[in-house]
Amino acid sequence: MKAWLRHHATSLRATALRLARSPVAAALNALVIGVTLALPLGAWVLVANLERLTGHLGADPQLSVFLAADATAADGAKIEAALRRESGVRALRFVPKDQALAEMKRADALAEIVASLGSNPLPDAFVVSLVPGDAPTAERLAAALRAMPKVALVQFDAAWARRLEAALRLGVLAVGVLAALLAFGLVAVTFNTVRLQILTQRDEIEVSKLIGATDAYIRRPFFYQGALVGLAGGLAAIAIVAACVAVLNGEVTRLAATYGANFRLELPGPGDLVAVLAFASGLGWAGAWLSVSNHLSEIEPK
Amino acid sequence: MIERPSAGSVVVSGQNVGALGRRAVPFLRRNLGLVFQDQKLLHDRSVIDNVMLPLLVCGSAAGDAARRARAALDKVGLAGREKAMPVALSGGEQQRLCIARAVANRPSILLADEPTSDLDPEAARAVMEIFRAFQQVGVTVVIATHDAALVESFAGRVIQLSHGRVIDARPEPGGG
Questions:
Q1: For B59-83, what is the mean pLDDT?
Q2: Cβ contacts (< 8 Å) between A10 and chain B: which residues?
Q3: Contact predicate A281/A227, CB 8 Å
Q4: What's the confidence (pLDDT) of residue B175?
Q5: pTM of the entire structure?
Q6: Partner B contacted by A302 (CB < 8 A)
Q7: Of residues B144 and A106, which shows the higher confidence score?
Q8: Which of A208, A211, A218 is most worth mutating to test chain B (most B CB atoms within 10 A of its CB)?
Q9: Residue A183's pLDDT band (boundaries 50, 70, 90)?
C-alpha cells in the first residue's frame, strides 16, 4: 500500500515536471482545451446570468390589481380581505400610489417624466403572487377581481416571464448538449497528446515491462498527464470566460443602467468552478485511459 | 520471459512459465536479471537512474533505491560514474551498466543474451569475470553466446543448441 501510494506521488511529480520542462507545448495544449471548454462554460455563464435576471423580475405567476382612482382605504381593505380568502394566493403586497411614484422617481430613465407631472396619476395597487402551475385558478381569480367594485384593471403579468423561463430551460439544455459534444473534443485532444507521449517513451515502456513493471505502473503517469492537461485546460477556460465577462461587464452595466437596473454578469461560484475543473480533469483522465488502453498493448518487449 | 514456449514447458523457480497468467508475468520478471546484447539502456537518463529503475518498479523508496543502485554500480566497477549519461560510457562500460541494472534487485537468476558479442576481447573478459563473481555468490547465471572460445575459458554447464534442438549437454566441471 505504501509503495502504491509512493508511486502515485512519484508519477504525479514526474508528470508535472515533464510538463514543466516543455512549457510552450504544455501551454498550447492547455489553450486548445481551454478554448474548447470556454464555449460551453461561457454559454453556461450567460444562461445562469439570464436566470438570475429573470429571478429579479419574478417569473412566478403574478397578478397586478390596480384600484380605481376614487377607491378609498375601506375599498382597498375589502379587496385585500377577498384576496386573502383565496387558496391560490401565495403572497400579497399592497403598493400605495405614493410608494409607486417614489419607485418611479428612483429609476433614472423615468425621473424626468415623473418630475414633469403635476399630480400623482398612479393608482393604489395590489401585487398578488400566485401558486405556480395552476393556470385555471389564476384565470378565475383574475375574472373575479375584474368584477369587483373599485377595481380598475387586473393585469396577468407572468406570461412573458414564463416564456423567458421556458427559453432559458431550452438554453440550459443546449448548453448541456454543447458541453457533451465538446467534451468529446477534449477527450480527443488528450487521447492524441498521451499517444504522442507513449510513442516518445516507447523505449522506457519496453524496458520497464522487461524488468517487471505491471501495466498499472506504466499507465499511471499517463493518467496523471491526462488529468493535469485537462486541469490546465479547465483553468484556461475559466480564465478565458472571466476575461470575456470582465470585458462585457462595462457595456452590460451601462445597458442595465438605462433601464434603471443595477445588473452585471457574474462568474459561477467557487463550488461550480471547482466542479468545472474536476470535470475537465476527469475528461483528461478518460482521454488518457482510452489512449493508454489502445496503444500500450502495441508496445511489447522483443 | 519475453515469449511463451510454443511446445514443451519452461519452469523457472518451480513456476511453469507457459501457464502463468498475463498479470503474473511482471512479478516473475522481477526475480530475473536480464542482460541484453543491445543493453536496452535509457539514454535520456543518467547511469544511476538506469540502475534505480527496476528498484523503483518494485516499490523501493527513492533513497533506498539510490543506495542499492550505487552498491550495484560498485560491484561492476562503475562507482563514481553515477551522474554520467550512458552515451558517455564505452561499450564495455555500457554492458557493465546493463549488468548493474540486472543485479540491482538481487535476482536469483541472471539471464544474459550475447552479452559480449559487441565487445573487444578485454571488455568481454571483464564482463565475464563479473558474471563469474555473481555465480560464485549463488546467483544462477545463464548466458547465451556464439563465442565458443569464451565458453571454453569460463567453463560451466554447457548446453549446445542448433536449430532449436539440444545437440550437446556438458555438465559443470566438478559438478554432479
A1: 92
A2: 56, 62
A3: yes
A4: 57
A5: 0.70
A6: yes
A7: B144
A8: A211
A9: confident
- Would you call B101 an interface residue with chain A, using a CB distance cutoff of 8 Å? yes
Q: Cα–Cα–Cα angle for A110, A113, A116, nearest 5°? A: 145
Put simply, whether B68 touches A (Cβ < 8 Å) is no
- Under 8 Å CB-to-CB from B149, ≥6 apart: which residues? none
**B9: which residues sit within 8 A by CB, 6+ positions away?**
B16, B17, B18, B19
Nearest CA to B75 out of B111, B104, B109 is that of: B104
Domains along chain B with CATH numbers: 31-170 (3.40.50.300)
Cα separation values, A88 from A85, A109, A159, Å: 9, 35, 17
Give pLDDT, residue A48.
Answer: 86
Helix extents (H) in B36-120: 47-57, 62-75, 91-103
From A36-45, A50-59, A84-93, the region with the lowest mean pLDDT: A50-59
Domains of chain A (ranges, CATH numbers): 2-57+162-298 (no CATH), 62-157 (3.30.70.3040)
Q: Is A54 helix (H, G, I), strand (E, B) or coil?
A: helix
Neighboring chain B residues of A204 at a CB cutoff of 8 Å: 42
Query: Using CB atoms, which residue from A4, A211, A214 is nearest to B53?
Result: A211
CA distances from B57 to A109, A144, A208, B27, B71 (A): 73, 82, 8, 10, 18
Q: pLDDT tens digits, residue range A116-159? A: 777 888 889 998 888 766 667 777 888 888 888 889 998 876 56
Shortest alpha-carbon distance between residue B176 and chain A (Å): 32
Is B29 within 8 Å of chain A by CB? yes
Distance between CA atoms of residues B132 and A266, nearest Å: 74
| Cα–Cα distance for residue pair B50/B78, rounded to 1 Å | 13
Closest CB from B23, B34, B61 relative to A210:
B34
How many residues are given for chain B?
Answer: 176
The pLDDT value recorded for residue A136 is 74
Instruction: Report whether pLDDT(A273) > 60.
Output: yes
Residue B8, C-beta contacts closer than 8 angstroms, at least 6 positions apart: none
Which amino acid is present at A149?
A: P
Contact A211 B34 (CB under 8 A): yes
Chain A contact for B108, CB < 8 A?
no
Please list every residue in chain A whose beta carbon sits closer than 8 Å to the beta carbon of residue B23. Answer: 214-215
Confidence (pLDDT) at B174: 66
Partner A contacted by B165 (CB < 8 A): no
Q: Which residue of B has its CA nearest to A3?
A: B59
Grade residue B176 by pLDDT with cuts at 50, 70 and 90: very low
Cell of A64: 397586478
- The stretch B89-95 carries a mean pLDDT of 91
Q: CA–CA separation, A45 vs A81, rounded Å?
A: 43
